[in-house]
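User: My instructor asked us to take a sequence, write out its structure as tokens, and then describe one feature of it. I'm not sure where to start. Here is the sequence I was given:
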Amino acid sequence: MAFDEFLLEAEEKMEKTEQVLLHDFAGVRTGKASSALVENIMVEVYGSQMRIRELAGITTPEPRTLNIQPWDVNSLHPIEKAIQKANLGLNPTIQGKTIRIFFPELSQERRQEFVKFVHKRAEEARVAVRNVRREAMEQLKKHRHDSGVTEDEAEKAEKELQKLTDQYIAKIDAHLATKEKEIMTV
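Assistant: Let's start with the prediction itself. The structure tokens for your sequence are:
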């Protein structure tokens, strides 16, 4: 049945939205060092844009320190500049052939900024899930009058789609609550 295919496709897209949100949340500072915070920063090297994770090894030797060791020493300064431009409130320092980032204790004001940021990302994820629902609903309505499809089947598919949407929005809200608590914990 075509409706099942639409529902499966919608669920896959909603799942991807949730995974993107979780990855974004992993990059939000909670007072401890996380490679997810810098790994996707784009750096201008070799005449193109590359992610830091493609240019260097990122380690956390201590809970509040991040080490970035480029595979090519020539990319040290471009990586440092990219981190500064990313406006994450981090101050990278070059020590020999590595870049060290020390994470200071977060102030209450900075924690509030992070909470606002994660709320914004969660709302964007909710909107993305609703857009997936809208697209799937359009597909369902378009194929509603195909031969062999009863009204009951069409209504059941629409209810399933709504249930799926509610389920993913609840997951997003749960991830948001967890991350908010993590950020605000001193």
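For the description part of your assignment, you could build on this observation: The domain at 35-102 is CATH 3.30.1360.40 (Gyrase A; domain 2). Try explaining in your own words what that tells you about the chain.
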